[in-house]
Design goal:
The protein is α/β, with parallel strands linked by helices. The chain has helices spanning 15-27, 44-48, 105-112, 129-132, and strands at residues 6-11, 33-38, 57-62, 75-80, 83-85, 88-90, 95-97, 100-102, 122-125. The protein has one domain (6-132): 3-Layer(aba) Sandwich (Rossmann fold). The chain is globular. The model has no long low-confidence stretch (mean pLDDT 82).
């Protein structure tokens, strides 16, 4: 019986982190592994490559859009570094910013839900259990902070 293709999704804060990770993985020349970036500025054709059939291993490097908006076939693992780039408006400087922040617990749970949609899956969180659970010293917000004010 032939091995089924398997893959993983790494959820990264932004396009720069995705490009840098993709370059590093490609230089490693991982045999039989396809590296697929996935972020908003890619063409539709490039974005749709993640849904095409494939053989061997696949690593999808995606922004937090992968938390809720799509299900990629064959993903058995999700790597969650616990970071997200969130749009914030600075009232003091009157500009929109995109700082990297700790992911909310709700978003972390959504990320976990991306693995094993069809078969058993594993989510590997790259932060401590204390950072995840409420009531402990945690940089991860229990709920997403509001992005607007009344």
């Amino acid at each position: 019986m032939a091995a089924r293709p398997s893959g993983r999704t790494d959820i990264l804060p932004g396009e720069r982190e995705i490009r840098e990770t993709a370059d590093t993985l490609r230089r490693a020349e991982l045999k039989g592994t396809e590296i697929l970036p996935l972020y908003a500025r890619l063409s539709n054709e490039e974005q749709n490559r993640v849904f095409a059939s494939h053989r061997g291993r696949r690593i999808v490097l995606a922004t937090n859009v992968a938390e809720t908006s799509l299900t990629v076939p064959g993903i058995r693992y999700v790597i969650d570094p616990g970071l997200v780039r969130i749009s914030r408006y600075s009232y003091r400087s009157k500009i929109q910013r995109l700082p990297v922040e700790a992911v909310s617990q709700a978003s972390a749970n959504q990320r976990k839900g991306r693995c094993g949609r069809i078969a058993e899956g594993v989510c590997i969180r790259l932060y401590s259990e204390e950072d995840f659970y409420p009531g402990l010293a945690l940089p991860i917000l229990r709920f997403s902070a509001p992005t607007w004010r009344r």
